[in-house]
Amino acid sequence: MDELSLYRSEIDQIDKQMKDLFLKRMEIVKKITKWKIKHDYPIFDPKREKFFVEQNSKDIVHSPHHDTYVAFLNSLLALSKEYQNQLMEEMNQ
């Protein structure tokens, strides 16, 4: 196997792990959404989101990948909110 194929194989393994973790995360998001509906809690919690991004990126603040990782986290939050909105609509029908 050539060098590029080896690298791609590593990326494929990482992507599978990320997929599995993403799906697990979204199952928890579903549970959180049910809790939010039950307790009349808003989907968007700016303090929680700020804390989430800061906590998860603080140890790479000097990394050349910091800004990209923050963008990744913000994308993840946006997808979670989109899913929560979808779930709320389905549960309120």
Question: Can you give a write-up of this model?
Answer:
The protein has 93 residues and is an all-alpha fold. The protein contains three helices and no strands. It is flat, with a radius of gyration of 17 Å. The relative contact order is 0.12. The model has no long low-confidence stretch (mean pLDDT 96).
Short key terms for the protein model shown above:
mainly alpha, 93 residues, 80% helix
Give the structural class: mainly alpha
Q: Spans with pLDDT under 50 lasting ≥5 residues?
A: none
Distance between the termini: 54 Å
Assess the beta-strand content as a share of residues: under 5%
Count of individual helical segments: 3
Helix content: over 70%
Rg measurement, Å: 17 Å
Mean pLDDT: 96
Order of helices and strands: HHH
Total strands: the figure is: 0
Shape: flat
Largest sheet: none
Helices and strands in order:
Blueprint: H1 3-38, H2 46-57, H3 66-91
Helix pairs in contact: 1-3, 2-3
